Amino acid sequence: METALTPEGLSTDILAIANLPVLWVLALGVFGAIIVQSLVYMKAAKKAGPAADISPEELRTSFRAGAIAAIGPSLAVVLVSIALLTLFGTPAVLVRIGLVGSAATESASASLAAGTMGATLGGPDYTQAVFVVAFMAMSLSGAGWMLATLILTPILRRGDTKLRRVNPALMAIVPAAALIGAFASLGIAELGKTPVHVLAVIVSAVTMGVCILLATRTSATWLREWGLGISIIVGLIAAYVAHTSGMAPAA
Amino acid sequence: MSAAETAVTQNASLAEFDRTTSRWGQLTMGVALLLSLAAPLYLVLSTDLGITASMIWTAYLAVAAAFFVLWFVEPITYYPVLGPAAMYQAFMIGNIANKLLPSALVAQAAIGAKAGTKRGEFAALMAICGAAMVHVLSMLFFVGILGTWLVSVIPTDIVDVARLYIFPAIIGGVLVQLIVTMKQPRVTVIAVVVAALVLFVLVPAVPALAKPATGVVVLITAVLAWFLRSRTATATPTTLVN
User: How far away is chain A from the Cα of B49, in angstroms, using its nearest Cα?
Assistant: First the structure.
């Protein structure tokens, strides 16, 4: 642990600072931006509808179809988000996991950031200071996606063919390698921790495997959406049983 | 109105739609970007935790090393499917592949609009608005209100254990999901071998590499995956994380 931290920085009461009212206000502001955007877009679509050969009736049907199709996936995200509340507090979870990012990228970012502070995400050394640095790093990383979107969209819109002519093999292999490399590294790093960590990784991985297998073998495609939430819960239950039955090293 | 005049009005009205959506899209996304950065910045500045700029930079570099490729690849990949207006929605709402794209496809099917046409673009846009409303409401209600209450009533010993093991419980499932959806066995093997070698051989030998270890794994995996790629298989676009 860095020595510059003050005694306050070493407190492990994350939720005391993670649920501050200012953070709630800022989080609600992000929700507000999305709502305003949707309202402006819908009004613009209604106005230009005749030119796009689409009737107001069809616009309403599209809205409704999109809303209904999103219910399942949204609730699946809700389940994962609730599991992460104790780690980041409600405002950070709402913005980072619920909106901009995803449970995978954001918890990975937080874990990497905690690692640079010599701490483990959620461990006994996961202090307020570690949380704040992790939160900052996740937000800066999420800003990378938004900035890239803000910069690239106008360029792509102008029909800049150079960007689209990037070697397709490169576009298929490098992102896949970067993604699998990052998550494989994080997953394997967990295997170097306590036996309970190893158990949690394996149980979660096996549960996900079973979910995907059932989703492809049967018609239960909803298992694909819910797979991550189910894997987390089952992994946590296994870890809880193992931890309380004394598999964890004495703290 | 003659056919030519109708075409002119149509173009003008579509151009106005493009202008409105890109101006407001950029504006709302810019606001969301600033608000999302303001939250952690507020904590850094208002609390007396002893956090230094170098701690933040070190953490940021470790995260950026793992993800910077994706910052650029994801927008380029999704642009042809989403179109310019929906780009600003998608990268703010998140969960594009598992929620927004399916919603857009369902809506296009519901009114019989083809992707790539104006009708298709408008149907997708309205569908994403519908999905956004459902998502915003369910996050606020189920996570913001019910979730916060739930955490406050669950016994603290359970919460503590959950916090301790939540990350391994996520990463196992995420990794399997990723490997299955990517369908890139060669890349997967390279990544796992590289990660194991870096974490259990290289880092113990060179402790200075502990902090940027994941970035090192990403870099070596990407380079090896490129040079060891199958030259016969056809390239298929990648499904991404957001």
Answer: 4
List, in order, residues 6 or more apart from B105 with CB less than 8 Å away.
B115
| Side-chain half-sphere CA neighbours of A214 within 13 A | 13
- pLDDT tens by residue, B168-178: 999 999 999 88
A79 and A173 belong to one structural domain = no
Give me the number of domains chain A comprises: 2
Is A223 part of the contact surface with chain B (CB cutoff 8 Å)? no
What's CA A215's distance to the chain center, in Å? 22
From the CB of residue A220, how many other CB atoms can be counted at a distance below 10 Å? 12
pLDDT in tens, B119-134: 888 999 999 999 999 9
Domain boundary among A141, A165, A189: A165
* Domain residue limits at A126: 1-165
Band the pLDDT of A175: cuts 50, 70, 90.
confident
Q: Tell me if A179 and B134 make a contact (CB, 8 A cut-off).
A: no
d(Cα B73, Cα B181) in Å, to the nearest integer? Answer: 17
- Copy the structure tokens of residue A162: 């150079």
The verdict on A138 touching B (C-beta cutoff 8 Å) is yes
Tell whether A114 and A187 lie within a shared domain.
no
